[in-house]
Amino acid sequence: MSTPLTITEIMRFSDRLYRETEIISITADEGVHRSTYGAVFKRANQVAHVLDHLGVEPGNRVATLAWNDHRHLELYYGVSCSGAVLHTINPRLFPEQLAYIMNHANDQIVFFDPMFLPLVEGLADKLSSVNSYVVLTSKGKMPESSSLTLLCYEDLIAQNTSSYPWPVLEETTASALCYTSGTTGNPKGVLFDHRSTVLHAYGCCMANVLGLSHNDVVMPVVPMFHANAWGTPYSCPVAGSKIVLPGPKMADGETLHALIENEGVTIALGVPTVWQALLAYLKETGKTIDTLNRTLVGGSACPISIMEEFEKQHGVYTYHGWGMTEMSPLGTVNRLIPGMEKLEESDRNEVRAKQGRTPFGVDMKIVDADGKDLPHDGVTFGDLKVRGWWVADSYFGEDDNRETHDEAGWFSTGDVATIDQQGFLNITDRTKDVIKSGGEWISSIELENLAVAHPHVAEAAVIGINDKKWGERPHLVVVSPEGVTPDEDSILGSFKGKVADWWIPDSMSLVDSIPHTATGKISKATLRKQFTSTFE
Ligand code: ADP
């Protein structure tokens, strides 16, 4: 039968089979909140009525500025299943970028957590299309605004019935929109549709990918405004997994520990810095995380030192993954293949540091500067291209995709990588971050991973510094753990024997903090600006 793949079917399925399965949230306004799939989907029906009353038409964009909690999940389903498009926005972007993307998306309504009121008030007169401002809270907790007419989410929900006549949607109906930094210029919108979302959810659940099931308790510590919390709002209901949503407390080791222990979390997903916070908390307090058995770490390269600490101290296995907003976002997951378990530890670690293999549904290759395919030998570097069922075929509002997609539909990721004979991807760098010394490439990621294994290094970044002789040379920027005076010779000396001598940074700077982008990644562009003048 050719029935459409829609998010509405995900909702129907888990409402039928997992109605009592729990959804636990830390909310921005009232602490821990306990709910269920049944309750969330019931309220998604009410959300759809609210949208009708507020004049939302099919295809209109509905924005959210919100942390991970049950209300955001209700909007995920209420908005997309009614035929509108959920535009999740990263509140950490600069106000000019926020105004740009909200106007570009032509957002009609914005639903936001109370803590973002000052941000929204500051933006409002720059927004050309927003006509309703809804605060995600209850009447008693409504903030006041002198400049905006605010609507109260819980009030609106309470005024509507919990049965909505969901429309029959084509599977290619747009469902959600998320802006990414893009390789150049303004942020770029990535528009997901129902079909790509369902296929991505299937892909994530597969045994060789995340292997999600109804025995899992899943904690996405990646924001629902960042590439749809890596698809977990859709894959968890498909698998029937209990969901634990940490709200605004994502960088707080104590909260993450309490949620894992109290809710029995079995798998958690997030970027490396989140896990550094949790691991530091566990080390300080001597506490354990007994139920957690695996983590998916991606978004930036995961150093082996994090994987080892998780495994040796806490019995938690780390899957390294790679993805992009343009890929919904899952691109690869590192699952060792039969036989690899028997490798010597150092060889196994070499494989585990790679970003892994594609699930069924994604294809990848590397090409040279002329677009010619390069061998998958684990040594040859090239520009990484992908295609597949959940890869975007253009950016939102841009008719011409020739800059990013070739004639056969392959998307240029902006990453430089190797792929080995067994299909394991190893990201060398972002194209714009790769260091070219004497015409040869040096991987800043590999150097950073080695640097953070040194006890004097808490966080590290390697950037290319102009050099008369070599073009560029690597420079190491380091943040040290509190109370530690780093020994430069010992840190720079620790690279010896682990990489080619000419890869070893010539110099090092100690800083109090390393700048990060709105999605929590090291901002190499800011660092380069900061250090270029130092070295001129
Ligand atoms: P943004 O640029 O807005 O942060 P994305 O989150 O979509 O947007 O970033 C995707 C990029 O993040 C990838 O192209 C890649 O450069 C980087 N990335 C993601 N996962 C990894 C990983 N495991 N190792 C190295 N780089 C990664």
Structure description:
The protein is an alpha/beta fold and 536 residues long. Helix content is 29%, strand content 24%. The protein has 16 helices and 24 strands. The strands form five sheets. The protein has an eight-stranded mixed sheet, with helices on both faces. The protein has a seven-stranded mixed sheet with strand order 7-6-5-3-4-8-9, sandwiched between helices. It has a four-stranded antiparallel sheet with strand order 16-17-18-19. The mean pLDDT is 95. The structure holds adenosine-5'-diphosphate. Adenosine-5'-diphosphate binds next to β14, β18 and β19.
Kindly summarize this structure in a few lines.
The protein is 29% helix and 24% strand.
Hetero ligands: adenosine-5'-diphosphate
Mean pLDDT: 95
**Beta-strand percent range:** 15-25%
Major beta sheet, strand line-up: 2-1-11-10-12-13-14-15
Number of helices: 16
Q: What gap, in angstroms, lies between the N and C termini?
A: 66 Å
Shape, principal axes of CA atoms: globular
Sheet with most strands: 8 strands, mixed
How many beta-strand segments?
24
